Amino acid sequence: MQYNAVNGVYITRHVVINDGNLVGANIVSILSSSMLTLPINWTELIMNYNIASCCTKAQCQRGLSKKNAMRWIDPHGTRTDYTFGDLEMQSNKFANVLTDLGIVAGDVFFTFLPKMPEQFFAFLGTLKTQAVCGTLFYNFGEDALLDRLGDSGAVGIVTRKSLYKKVARIRDQLPALKYIILVDGEDDPLNGVISYVRIMAEAAFEFEVQPTAPGTPSVLHYTSGSTGKPKGVLHRHGSLTSQVATAQGVLGLKEDDIYWCTADQGWVTGTSYGIIGPWSLGVTQVHYGGGYDAQTWMNLIAQEKITVWYSAPTALRMLMREEESIFTSANLSCLRDIYSVGEPLNPEVISWSRRVLKHDIFDTWFQTETGAIMISNRPGLEIRPGSMGKPFEGIEPAILADDGTPLPEGEQGNLCLKAGWPSMFVTYLNNESAYKSKIKDGWYYTGDTARKDSDGYYWFMGRSDDVINTAGHLISPFEVESALLEVEEVAESGVIGAPDDLLFEKIVAFIQLHERYQPTKDIEIKIRLHVSNKASSIATPQELIFCDSIPKNKSGKIMRRVLKARYMGTDAGDTSTLEI
Ligand code: ATP
Ligand code: MG
Fold first, then answer.
1. By percentage, how much of the chain surpasses pLDDT 90?
2. Which part of the chain is the AMP-dependent synthetase/ligase domain (predicted)?
3. Using a 6 Å cutoff on CB, does residue 435 contact ligand 1?
4. I want to staple 110 with a disulfide (CB 3.0 to 4.6 A). Which of 134, 145, 449, 463 is the partner?
């Protein structure tokens, strides 16, 4: 990668980035916050931001090389520990592997693996070389892979045999993809397939990380595709400042914590808070390779003595459907705090958690584009169930009308952020115009709508294109869904607006009942009455449609546009991230 100091422009093989001076002001405001006592020498960091070095080498230099960095629990429950020294060595080796293959700064390299140790080593190793590391959710099908590998011009990928089949089928459409490293496979030189075990055994374990300026591209994530075609969101090494500051200032991580983040590394939460934030603070993480199972999860928290747990509303709503005895019989006294991200956290989930888990849940809001938590609840801040909390230090949100005018307190509008926080994305890969269209007069338009109350709490209303305009009122699908969830018989719901001659849009609710219930007229009446009392009569769905499941995307978010297409009988657009 070349850096032109005069213009502040980085040139990579695939992307040209204007470094600008996005970092300066916000570093000062974030770091000067009195609550932060970071264990890393930040002056040094600003000189050399390399994310991976901060997660591994810096920790070893602080004397933590023998401290456990990761307790890996495989899907069968077998436990293996990796120290910070192991992370440093394995990631150095991987960096040497890529360098020996000829992969250079600015190249795009992907991991396509389920949660497993090799994924973490590869991620950190790739960042050490200053190549860009993209992470692909292991559940992706061929179309989703082709989109992402093709769009990014990826030169290599680390995967495993069972997933390689999908890549092999699209390989001839990916001319740039030269190297495939298989964690459990043999060398196959004819097909450019390399054995991870062999090549890692041969690699040296010293790797000198080049000084990495904050603007150097780092991580590439494609968004969840909730609202349309997923976008390739490019981040840079300077994002570390926000990630580590929020891991400490919001998640409250301390060196003696045992922390579990359930997010897959394919999504931004999985890298920002499943790798970068906690390890830069020298915190031990538990990573579990198995899927959702309430009993196993509770056992895991108790046995591993998890102190801080970061999960998502979908998972928490699934727990709510389980027998309460699972939770009352578990010893969760080790838990200090629970956090949630990814979707609005329905107030009912918080009440359930208070009653059954005997804990609050702190809702946090961010996006792939923001790279780190921007608005959140956190210890020391009174929780207002349904509100996503207050902005983090150095983050300046605003509620703006479509024409950019600030809206008064209490009014719903575009949730915007003053551009320039350290983990702000650099661009949408190959879609600079979409990036530019999101930034007006120094404000980044998040695409979400919200309102701010008189005490400075922000309340999520919906996606800008998701708000229902009925009988002259703007209704958030989330508000209706939250009210629906309070009805005992309702397990999940998805609410959409559909065209209506009289109301402009009518409210249509798709409802999944708990397994033990069948739809009846009585349940219908009960639901309507409840929403009318709880939300408002205007928010009461005109139509209730009972179904077996609510479509979600692979990161667990309700896909309202799929429901709408189903209702309207139209094409649902890009469904590559739809969970089947
Ligand atoms: P796409 O941009 O492709 O439509 P996406 O927006 O779902 O997908 P992500 O970047 O993973 O992709 O998700 C960020 C979005 O998730 C936010 O813009 C917001 O709509 C929603 N979200 C995240 N956290 C919260 C939260 N705490 N409360 C409400 N909504 C949230
Ligand atoms: Mg989005």
1. 76
2. 66-419
3. no
4. 134
